[in-house]
Design brief:
alpha+beta, about 35% helix, binds zinc ion
Length: about 290
């Protein structure tokens, strides 16, 4: 199954459901950031949540989810857009913690106490951000809380990443269910009963089910699929972006790069791509700054 997202209405259009499969993009994130299993699970859940939330409002081009915790992972960031492109970065990826009682990856412990920040349209004037305190650092519950209390949309979120013994990603995906304002009590009860019978996203996919199956299950066969989109790990960085970043440095710093390092090498922190700037290119950056003054 390729990474993708299904957007559907259900229960007489009283509920909206997003269902996603994100194994490849989470595996790519793991390869780029060299994360250990618990960090992979945390990072993968955040990337999966961001991938779905990137499609919430058509007029919003980009979304950033950021978690700052006091656990061993530190901070982590996921960015997404309406093209289904997701990228992210993690402070400390070498974290492998398990809960002793369940033997499950201890994501909440690895993140600790802290905050979740949602930023819409980070690069535009209409940028808006909202921060909540983490509920338990397991990410799905934190997002559920965010939707219900910060955005007043009662929601249910499920996110899962299954990591193999060799540390690779076996399954990843999730769902976001939104209860629309005019939903009836009867529909809400039906939905709650359905969710009671659901164990985990990764178990469900591991049993050979597809995203369509998951959607049908959550919707009690009332789904009406509106859209389907491919999802992928993609970083939109380019040399121009880093040229502008270098131009923000003061001349003294740039001169050190020119005289002592004979150029600059910059590695993108989202995708590991390396960009080289020759001595001549750096001199040009200084000259252009002078022209602009
Ligand atoms: Zn990049």
């Amino acid at each position: 199954m390729k990474d993708h997202l299904l957007i559907s209405t259900a229960y007489n259009n009283e509920i909206r459901i997003y269902v996603s499969y994100t194994k490849d993009l989470v595996e790519e994130a793991r390869n780029i950031h060299k994360t250990w299993p618990t960090a992979t699970a945390a990072f993968g859940r955040l990337l999966t949540g961001a991938a779905m939330m990137g499609f919430f409002n058509k007029d919003e081009s980009e979304l950033t989810l950021r978690i700052d915790g006091d656990g061993p992972i530190g901070w982590l960031v996921a960015e997404s857009n309406i093209q289904g492109e997701v990228r992210g970065n993690i402070d400390k990826g070498e974290v492998y913690l398990k809960y002793h009682d369940t033997n499950k990856l201890a994501v909440g412990q690895a993140i600790g106490n802290g905050h979740l920040t949602v930023i819409r349209n980070p690069k535009l004037k209409s940028a808006y951000s909202s921060t909540i305190e983490l509920v338990n650092g397991e990410i799905a519950e934190d997002l559920t809380y965010f939707f219900s209390y910060s955005e007043q949309v009662p929601s249910s979120v499920g996110l899962g990443v299954l990591v193999d013994t060799n540390s690779s990603v076996v399954q990843a995906g999730g769902f976001i269910i939104q209860v629309l304002p005019y939903a009836s009590e009867e529909t809400i009860t039906k939905l709650e009963d359905t969710l009671k019978n659901f164990t985990s996203v990764t178990d469900y996919f591991s049993e050979g089910n597809t995203t369509e199956d998951l959607l049908s299950f959550l919707a009690n066969n009332t789904e009406n699929i509106l859209e389907s989109h491919d999802l992928k790990y993609h970083c939109g960085c380019n040399k121009e972006y880093f040229r502008k970043t270098l131009a923000k440095l003061d001349d003294a710093t740039l001169n050190v790069l020119i005289d002592e390092d004979n150029g600059a090498e910059i590695v993108c922190e989202y995708c590991n791509k390396t960009y080289y700037f020759t001595k001549e290119e750096l001199i040009e950056i200084i000259d252009n700054k002078k022209l602009q003054v």
